[in-house]
Structure formats: C-alpha cells, structure tokens
C-alpha cells in the first residue's frame, strides 16, 4: 500500500511540475538607429589620432555615418574635420554606427615616410549629451619595413 502512495505521489508531482509551464512570446530583435547627425543635442565624438601612442597634431579626420567598414573612396565620407588642439570633435551625433578614418603627419619619422593613416569602426550606444573619447591609432607600414 505504501508503494502505491509513493508512485501516486511521484505521478502527481510530475503532473504539477510539467503543467506549470509559462508561454513566452518570441520577441523581435530591436533595430538600432543607423547613426548620423541630429538637429538637437546629441553625443559628441572626440577623435585623437595617435602614432605609437604619441598624439598627432597635424592631420585630417573623416567620418562616415551608418557604416561599419571603410568606404570605397575618400569622397564618400559624410564629414571631415582638421585636427585642432590634438583632436577633432564631431557633435550632435545620434546612436548608431560610424567609421572613422584619419590621415596625419608624424614629424619624428624620416621625411617621405612621415604620413600615417588608419581607421576604425565606432558604435555610439546612447544619444544623450555624452562625449566619447576615441584614441585612433595610425600607422605607416613603410617605416616598419626593415628590409630596406
């Protein structure tokens, strides 16, 4: 008789545990904004170009809105700014993706191979009035060529 009660108790517990399943709705993924300029206040991106962690004070910084990769040509960038006070500032940016590219001169290098360049993808996670600091590392493969 005791075995019957144990079996009935296990069956009853199993029915209760399996019967209490909550149905979860499938949520569609949230699409983030593509990125770009806004007329109102937005985020600010401060780009500081560097070569071997030394700030480059002479150069140009380009930005492409809503992009994760480098555009095919230089005229496809949406905005550009000259490096002033060791940085370039892009303001009124919305949440989204940006591709940053910079060209500058590192005058500590040998003349002729002093042009340094490079780019990076950046994602702004919030469109609040926040300043994001990006230290963009630039390079020139010619001055690393030790076979010369």
Polypeptide structure, described:
By secondary structure, this protein is mainly β. Helix content is 12%, strand content 37%. The protein is built from one helix and eight strands. The longest helix is centred in the N-terminal third of the chain and has 18 residues. The model has no long low-confidence stretch (mean pLDDT 87).
Distance between the termini: 94 Å
Largest sheet: 4 strands, mixed
- What radius of gyration results from the CA coordinates? 28 Å
**Helix-strand string:** HEEEEEEEE
The number of strands is 8
Oligomer: single chain
Strand content: 35-45%
Helix proportion of residues, in percent?
10-25%
Instruction: Summarize model confidence as the mean pLDDT.
Output: 87
* Count of alpha and pi helical runs: 1
Which shape, going by the Cα principal axes? Answer: elongated
Pairing-aware structural class of the strands and helices?
A: mainly beta
Unreliable stretches (pLDDT < 50, length at least 5) are none
Summarize the model shown.
The chain is mostly beta strands and 148 residues long. The chain has one helix and eight strands. A hairpin with a 2-residue loop joins strand 1 and strand 2 (54-55).
């Amino acid at each position: 008789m005791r075995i019957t009660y144990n079996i009935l108790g296990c069956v009853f517990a199993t029915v209760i545990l399996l019967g209490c399943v909550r149905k979860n709705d499938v949520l569609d993924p949230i699409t983030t904004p593509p990125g770009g300029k806004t007329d109102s206040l937005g985020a600010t991106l401060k780009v500081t170009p560097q070569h071997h962690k030394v700030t480059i004070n002479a150069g140009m910084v380009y930005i492409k809105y809503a992009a994760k990769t480098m555009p095919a040509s230089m005229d496809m960038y949406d905005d550009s700014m000259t490096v002033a006070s060791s940085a370039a500032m892009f303001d009124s940016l919305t949440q989204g993706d940006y591709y940053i590219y910079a060209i500058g001169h590192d005058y500590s290098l040998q003349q002729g191979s002093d042009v340094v360049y490079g780019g990076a993808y950046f994602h702004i996670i919030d469109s609040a009035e926040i300043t994001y600091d990006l230290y963009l590392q630039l390079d020139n493969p010619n001055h690393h060529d030790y076979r010369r």
